[in-house]
Amino acid sequence: MPEQLSGAQILCRVLLEEGVELLWGYPGGAIMPFYHALPEYPALRHILVRHEQAAAHAADGYARACGRLGVCVATSGPGATNLVTGLATAHMDSSPILAITGQVPRPMIGRDAFQETDIIGMTLPVTKYSHQVQDVSELAPRVREAIAIAREGRPGPVLVDVPKDVQNQKAEYVPAAKVSGAGRQVSATTRPLTPDTRHLIEQAAQLIAAAQRPLIMMGHGVILASAYDELRQLAERTGIPVITTLLGISGFPESHPLNLGMPGMHGEVHVNRAIQRADLILGIGLRFDDRVTGNTAGFAPHAKIIHIDLDASEIGKNVPTAVGIVGDVKAVVTELLGAVAPRGCDAWRAEISSFARQRRETFRGDLSPERIVTAIHDATGDHSTIVTDVGQHQMWVAKLYPYGRPNTHITSGGLGTMGFAVPAAMGVVMARPDEPVWAISGDGGFQINMQEIATMVQERIPVKMGIFNNGYLGMVRQWQQFFHGRRYSATPIWSPDYVKLAAAYGIAGWRVEEAGQLPEIVARANATPGPTLIEFVIEQEANVYPMIPPGASLSEPIEAEPAGAPSA
Ligand SMILES: Cc1ncc(C[n+]2csc(CCOP(=O)(O)OP(=O)(O)O)c2C)c(N)n1
What we know:
With 568 residues, the protein is an alpha/beta fold. The longest helix is centred in the middle third of the chain and has 16 residues, at 195-210.
């Protein structure tokens, strides 16, 4: 006999069927039946956040770290709208999360009921699927469908909106005939390669054989497809130097002799010059986003571009491609490995080395970002995951941290969401409970979601927090310095006493003002159980160099303080 359950209970059962173990959320009127049912399903652990935005980022961090579906829950109206930034962040960076929102009862919809909002209309552009359930009979199939969509192909967020009366409606619960993938990792659809695709791979191999100055540019798609080994073998077989985009970082070992570094707006001079000199670019699992290409009119003017991506809509979207190959990155690179002849690129690599520049960043005092990043690596080895926020510190960590292990650099790349690091790091901890997880933020971004320290304390989530405190919204201040005549409009930012803040939450906190303090304090913060916090008091007007001005081509970097500007 099929069981009669409430919509809320059915929702819990479907989540369990799908292997969900963890929910991040915040209750309220329209989602109360779901929260009423939840204690009946202890296998679903719920973590109460302090702001729904954090629930979405935490679900996202969890999904990025372990490849499983992240789940967040909110009530209607303000609860649901608070999720939107997190959904947009996950959408831009292809992270599979399911948002469940309560909605006002069906008879009230369209009447400006208390806490009614059109969350479907608001989230359609930032999700792969956003659906309001109209009857309990469609609840289970729609949730299963939403989860399948979040996971399949290029992953991304989905939302299911459940009116309160649907959560209370009773129906027969029919378990899925065949569970669609309990707790399984997200993996790209691995259809066998078609003859057409094989033909394109053959063409790509010929272009690689003929190129004098080839480059591999790899992005997040390599990490999503777990194609690290295949990519490394391809690079080693051909000797082609590898450039990693911001979201591609840690997909190829930093210490590998073929790793050139990050391209684009804050890419190193030799990386961008290599792109401008290259005669072939093999783009793998990246979007050729504008922060990577600079002005596309001047991007890689001598290069033919081969673009491999799971998402057909990416091919030719931002840059013209000579060969576009749509398919699972791992499968395509594996096939390409068999098609390319071994070769080397010694002369080309020597030419790129000659482009290298001495770093010209200067820091008053000795507490440089490089020293901080090195101290964190010294304390954690390759065992940690580093989650960064958005701004100057994000660029410094991306460029300086010696990532040695795949998928250990997690950041908001596409949307550039300040406030991401602290809650996303909570998700990473839940996915990787045995490793240190560091959330590195600026003093601005930290203050956007620092309320989540309470969540960490209540739920025992040991995030190690590092705040780069320069007293400014640093990256915006840098733009004001370079492009707005140093008019620091709304960028000086006051901070509380972070050591006292830590104490108020009952966690250990330290302030570091000199490099000499780094080894001991970073090691203690890393080793102290539970959440810990360090404020790094850094040079106020330090800049990230080099920088390609917005709208300029990769050939036009600013490498040092603009002439005539007083030195910082
Ligand atoms: C939610 C959000 N608001 C505004 C911005 C624009 N923005 C980009 S970087 C930045 C400054 C970041 O300052 P801080 O967090 O102190 O980090 P820093 O650059 O100093 O390392 C701002 C305001 C953003 N990316 N995200």
